[in-house]
User: What shape does this take?
Amino acid sequence: MSRQIFVNLPVKNLSQSVEFFTRLGFAFNPQLTNGNAACLIVSDNSFVMLLTEAMFQSFTPKTLCDATQSSEVLVALSSENREAVDDMVRRAVAAGGTLYNGPQDHGFMYGHGFQDLDGHIWEFFYMEPGTACQA
Assistant: This one.
């Protein structure tokens, strides 16, 4: 069975978040996008649901954390090479995102990331061929 993954993230301003990620080159599924949610397409089976805080809160009895003050998740996405990692981070900062850490070079793996408009951490990484996890 092939699974899909939907990561759900609360956002303060949905339209600003959609504009931010559109500037980074992401597309959205219009069938799963409305005034309360936007479905960011990562790949054929991977999606990020950007939900208004009110919509997100309707799914959990827990208090929402302020991602600018606390870490609740690290969204890590693979890239085709090191240059693509650095390019994505540059584009994110130009679109209004912020840096929270410097690039990490582990030899076989290189990564760098940014915080989106709500403080969620997005890591982009390149892993040398043959070192990736196999299913």
The chain is about 20% helix and 35% strand. The mean pLDDT is 94.
